[in-house]
Write a structure and sequence with these properties.
By secondary structure, the protein is of the alpha/beta class. The protein has two domains: 113 residues, 2-Layer Sandwich (Enolase-like, domain 1), CATH 3.30.390; 242 residues, Enolase-like C-terminal domain (TIM Barrel). The radius of gyration is 20 Å and the shape is globular. Its cofactor is Mg(2+). It comes from Sinorhizobium mexicanum.
Length: 374
């Protein structure tokens, strides 16, 4: 019987030159941090996870050492307690699933139910560009085979001149590519960076934006109100045919339970690297399906997080697309996936998961050694 013998957590930092100017952050990002979790068993196999910083995990290793890594439900309960008291330690769950797959010789997507071995992707942009540049970016996504694109609206941190300028960017995209590309919009109103104290949109603001997005055939509008305003989200969902999406930073699974029961969102977007891990989020996929709510994870961490969300989506879910953070040149695959031996590659908008045991992660050990900061 396999037993966990060691857990190693390392932190890494990749300098970004030129910086990445994220739409949700008024401060240009000059580096990109990644935390790598390695769980090893007595036979020398290693499970890998990545995502949040694992704050508060140190000192709790004995709760896992000596245990069977395949007992993911038991480990999930322990991680849920740690995450309640400290930080989000869900990368540990990803590493346990990766190790379990290596023990059994199976890819995670098959262990989760095996509905599919690939996922359709939507290109998720991150940089605010002027209308012409956004249209050109949309055309490049279409040429690469993506069926859909998410456009970021400005947060209060800066960027375009308010939501009307954001709408003009959508108009420019539609003028360039017509209806050949499905469009989603991230309104960036659900949460703020710590230094950004500007209020989120009101319900009437969000409704006015929704009317414009209806006209432009937008598939969903994401985070149009503050995360606490679930009643407002439900009112907005009832008032517009545009789907309402959200939940990328929701901290607890019970909050998603309430969101699903209240039909506050048409689309829920948990990220296995940030809430619940694979073990917890598979519950949400089942709950959402039963309620007629779309399940399609957020995945803006790194390639390891993208892979983990992809395995869950392929194995359990029926999402039309999975988020694929990709916005050249500022957010290239090489930047996003620097801990990995090779960046993820899509095939005409599909991510093929294949038959590799576990999550199929291969790390770039030399790059990790060069970028290690802790």
């Amino acid at each position: 019987m396999s037993r966990i013998v060691s857990i190693e957590i390392t932190h890494h930092r990749l300098p970004l030159d030129p910086p990445f100017k994220a739409s949700w952050d008024g401060r240009p990002r000059k580096h990109f941090d990644a935390t790598i979790v390695r769980v090893r068993d007595a036979e020398g196999r290693e499970g890998i996870g990545s995502g949040d910083l694992m704050k508060g995990f140190e000192g709790h290793e004995e709760l896992f050492i000596g245990k069977d890594p395949r007992h993911v439900e038991q480990h999930y309960e322990v991680l849920s307690h740690i995450s309640f008291h400290y930080g989000r330690c869900w990368p540990m769950d990803l590493a346990l699933w990766d190790l379990t797959g290596k023990i059994t010789g199976e890819p995670v997507w098959r262990m989760l139910g095996g509905r599919a071995d690939r996922v359709r992707l939507y290109a998720s942009s991150g940089v605010l560009r002027d209308a012409g540049a956004m249209a050109a970016q949309a055309e490049s996504y279409l040429e690469e085979g993506f069926p859909a694109m998410k456009v970021r609206f400005t947060s209060s941190a800066g960027g375009r001149d308010g939501w009307r300028a954001d709408v003009r960017a959508i108009e420019a995209i539609r003028a360039r590519v017509g209806d050949r590309l499905e469009l989603m919009v991230d309104c960036n109103q659900g949460w703020r960076m710590p230094w950004d104290t500007t209020l989120a949109w009101t319900f009437k603001d969000a409704l006015a934006v929704a009317r414009e997005l209806e006209r432009l055939g937008v598939y969903w509008m994401e985070e149009p109100l503050h995360r606490s305003d679930r009643k407002g989200m439900r009112r907005l969902s009832d008032a517009t045919p545009v789907r309402i999406a959200g939940g990328e930073m929701t901290r607890e699974l019970y909050e998603f339970r309430d969101i699903i029961e209240e039909r506050a969102f048409d689309v829920i977007q948990p990220d296995v690297a940030l809430v619940g891990g694979i073990t917890g989020c598979r519950r949400l996929a089942w709950q959402a399906r039963e309620a007629g709510v779309m399940f399609t994870p957020h995945s803006w961490t790194n390639g390891i997080g993208v892979l983990a969300n992809a395995h869950l989506t392929a194995g359990v879910g029926e999402a039309p697309w999975l988020e694929y953070p990709y916005d050249n040149p500022e957010w290239s695959g090489e930047r996003r996936d620097y801990p990995m031996a090779q960046p993820l590659r899509h095939a005409r908008g599909w991510l093929e998961l294949g038959e590799a045991a576990g999550l199929g992660i291969a790390l770039d050990e030399e790059r990790l050694k060069a970028t290690r900061i802790g």
